[in-house]
Amino acid sequence: MRVPALAGPRARAVPLAVVLGVAALVVSGARSGAGEPARLEPELSWAAPSWAHPLGCGEGGVDLLALVAHASLRAILLAVCVALVGFVVGCPLGAAAAVARGRFERAVARACDLVQAFPTFLLALVVLSAVRSPSRVHLGLVFVLTAWAPFARLALAQTRVLRDQAFVEAARAIGVTPLRVVVRHLVPNLLGVVAVQLGAAAAAVVVSEAALSFVGFGARDGVSLGVVLDQGVSAMLRAPHVLFVGAAAVFVTSVSLMAAGRAFDPTFARARREN
Amino acid sequence: MDRGGRSHAPPGGVERDKGEGGGGRIAGGRVAAALLGRLAAAALGRLAEAALVVLALATLVFLALRLLPGDPAALVLGDQSSEEERAVLRGKLHLDEPMWMQYARFVRGLATLDLGESVRRPGTPALDRVLDAVGPTASLASLAVLLGAAIGISAAVLGAGPWLGARRGWVDRVATGLAATPLLAFAPVLTFALAARLRVVPLPGDPDAGAGGLVFASGLLALPLAAHVARVSRAALDDVARAQFLGVARAKGGSYARVLWLHALPASIGPIVTVIGTQLGALLGGAVVLERLFERRGLGTLILEAYASRDLPVLEAAVVFSGALFVGAQQLAAAIHAAVDPRVRR
Questions:
Q1: Which of A137, A275, B26, B243 has its CA 20 to 30 A from that of B291?
Q2: How many angstroms separate the CA of residue A162 from the nearest CA in chain B?
Q3: CATH of the domain at A101
């Protein structure tokens, strides 16, 4: 992470600016005249990029800009929901485990290890195969099953460091109740570090969602980045632009979510200044 | 452990170790025996844990297919099927029994490796179809792990050593960039460029692609793993860089390469093995994506096929089996870690 030049509060603004830029692009695409991603124009099948269709057309003449914009918007919405639920569940769990110490702490740590290394993809395949027509709600539920673990693990590690520090001991010594210690002294110091994981978790959800719909397990509405990639692969030689658009969309969406997570990092601006 | 090993040693063994020249061999043998014993004990504990995890996964599969809304028989046969047809299928899949009996049958099937017959290909046990598909996936994944570890560790050593000079920073940057790039984004593009356009490598889905196709596919799968391994082993190398034994090794006249490979790397093998273990889940997902991309035979393709044709027994068997493979590989990584690194032994 030794990127030179940027310094101070400006450095914090950069990832946010990246995300806002992507969001603006997405919204403009979603709003643009081409309109609905469901609109097909068969005579434009696999058409190369043009002024009317800046990203070209895919299977059945679907406008790729509209499809990509709608797909990323829905993916980001799903990812943010999943990440927030993981955050809300995992962060208190990890902090409580570290404060309680002993057996509960070990159990939570072990559970985090197990869940985090669990093949989420397999789990998703199982749950989705039992549903007649998978929707984004089902996808979200599957992702939430494992999304809490990284948050809990981070909160646990961070609280372990914090719980022995002088200011926490001082608070205890003057008779502050344990609950108040957690709420007033531990959680504020915890949030920044754990919040960084929000971006990483959201990016992972975007990629998993695209991967699931790429292999045919996605939401039934067919508006997903994975569908764009699927079209691109099947028409690889006829219309390579579809493949590039899909790959770039997945990359940009996941990287900008990760960058957005870094904007929460309280040590981020400081570390940059020191370099 | 230690005490047990000592009680079996001949009396006076300690003095002999110190005195005679041949003592080194005996001590070496004893150390090896102790190491083996430790490995065996760790392996037993891990086997039990792995069995538990697999059982949990299998139970989840079992419940998912039965408790979620929707009649499995209707899922398999489609909406147009008659009630009699569904009843016959329900009887065949034992879906008409009480839940606890179904579960008991299911667990017994797991233990005896008899997971029922394929619905779509009557007469073929589900397990046979799974075993057919395991080979290609296992070779893909294991080659990817080997390649990923080799590339990642070499990159870390390059980045830690003095050979690249000021350009060393690029190793870190490339690793960070690669770790942030999803396989889903770069695999199709690389395939298009290398296999479809330039024709440097064969398409791995081709039946006569042979070794080249396998190496290409597992190379794609290995790249994200290599990036993670490179970052973690770089951090681990930096961690031990200030250790005294490295200074001693340098002072004895060892070259940078020798010190890094022989002294620093073994000390930092723990985090490397751990990161490979945690990346196995992603590797499995990546393997499914690649098999779909290349239309290559394997567990992923089998799962997708069973899903598309609603072949529940095959789906169950394939998912449980790949879960077992995954857990086994992960426990193997943990066991290696425990055997190599004295700090993690319990």
A1: A137
A2: 23
A3: 1.10.3720.10
Mean pLDDT score, A232-258: 86
Q: With respect to residue A30, please indicate whether it lies within any of the assigned structural domains.
A: no
B331 Cβ under 8 Å from any chain A Cβ = no
Residue A246 lies in a domain: yes
Length of chain B: 346
pTM: 0.80
Kindly tell me if the per-residue pLDDT of B125 is higher than 60. Answer: yes
Structural domain of A215: 11-25+57-274
In Å, how far is A247's CA from the nearest CA of chain B?
4
pLDDT at B168: 79
Kindly identify which residue of chain A lies nearest to residue B61, measuring between CA atoms: A126
Among B195-209, B257-271, B314-328, the range scoring the smallest mean pLDDT is: B195-209
Q: What size, in residues, is chain A? A: 275
Chain B partners within 8 Å of A243 (Cβ): 188-189, 192
d(CA A188, CA A174): 20
Of A120, A132, A229, nearest to B281 by CB-CB distance is A120
Which residues touch B210 (CB under 8 Å, ≥6 apart)?
B202
In B257-272, which positions are buried (b, 16+ CB within 10 angstroms) versus exposed (e)? eebbeebbbebbbbbb
Q: Is B135 on the interface with A (CB under 8 A)?
A: no
What is the C-alpha to C-alpha distance for residues A87 and A153, in angstroms, rounded to an integer?
Answer: 11
Distance CA(B20)–CA(A43), nearest Å, equals 90
Write out chain B residues lying below 8 Å of A259, CB-based.
none
Number of folded domains in chain A?
1
Rounded to the nearest integer, the mean pLDDT of chain B is 78
Asked if the structure places residue A5 within a domain, the reply is no
Q: Is A217 at the interface with chain B, CB within 8 A?
A: yes
Tell whether A270 is covered by a domain: yes
Instruction: For A44-96, write each residue's pLDDT tens digit.
Output: 777 778 777 777 787 777 888 888 888 888 888 899 999 999 998 998 888 88
Condensed to tens digits (0 to 9), the pLDDT of residues B34-52 reads: 777 877 776 787 788 788 8
